[in-house]
Amino acid sequence: MLPTTEMARNMPAKILFVDDEPDLECLICQKFRQKIRTGEYQVFFAHNGVEALSTLREQPDIDIILTDINMPVMDGMALLAKLNELVTMVKTVVISAYGDLGNIRKAMNGGAFDFLIKPINFQDLEITINKTLSEVQKLKENRRDRQEKEEALRRSEASAREQATKLELTLQELQRT
């Protein structure tokens, strides 16, 4: 598994923040300015779940979605349900000012990878992003390994069929002789 900084050299981590708070975009860009500037993070913003789904269609390789629960048009829980239907590699972290156990349980049962409480503690946010990126990287590596094994199996099966055909032809030739 690659550490976050090493992973970023290969490709930037794509992070989508979904929140209707107008100041969040500025705060996030300010806090992660260095990682954005160096290409470690590529950040996107949406103000509700509908915008988030649109962004995800344009950027299907987004790694993490950090979403608020209470938003207009489509809230975070509805977005989480839609993301589960899409079956993507993206991991979702729910952020909410309502840190009661019911909301946390509902988000985690809905498929959230983690849960943060507002006001956002940026140290906790960074730890959560790194932990989530690490999990996404593991999933991507597992998918790559599986695809490589499936391809090797296909090649092996094709080779076995080719050998069987050659043996059959050789046997027919021997029978004719």
Query: Main β-sheet, in a few words?
Result: 5 strands, parallel
CATH fold label: Rossmann fold
Terminus-to-terminus distance = 59 Å
User: What is the share of helical residues?
Assistant: 55-70%
Calculate the mean pLDDT score and round it. Answer: 82
Neighbour order of strands in the largest sheet: 2-1-3-4-5
Number of strands: 5
Our count of domains comes out at 1
Low-confidence stretches: 1-9
CATH level-4 homologous superfamily: Response regulator
CATH architecture: 3-Layer(aba) Sandwich
Helix/strand-derived class? alpha/beta
Write the topology of this structure:
Layout: H1 4-10, E1 13-18, H2 24-31, H3 33-37, E2 41-46, H4 49-58, E3 64-68, H5 76-86, E4 91-96, H6 101-109, E5 114-117, H7 122-176
Parallel strand pairs: 1-2, 1-3, 3-4, 4-5
Helix pairs in contact: 4-5
Distinctive features:
single chain; 177 residues; alpha/beta; Rossmann fold; five-stranded parallel β-sheet; 15% strand; disordered N terminus
Question: Could you write a compact summary of the structure shown?
Answer:
The chain is an alpha/beta fold. It has a single domain (4-142), classed as Response regulator (Rossmann fold), CATH 3.40.50.
Tell me what the structure shows.
The protein is of the alpha/beta class. It has a single domain, classed as Rossmann fold. Helices cover 59% and strands 15% of the residues. It has seven helices and five strands. It has helices at 4-10, 24-31, 33-37, 49-58, 76-86, 101-109, 122-176; strands at residues 13-18, 41-46, 64-68, 91-96, 114-117. A five-stranded parallel β-sheet has the order 2-1-3-4-5, sandwiched between helices. Strand 3 (64-68), helix 5 and strand 4 form a beta-alpha-beta unit. Helix 4 runs parallel beside helix 5 (76-86). It is elongated and about 85 Å long. The relative contact order is 0.12.
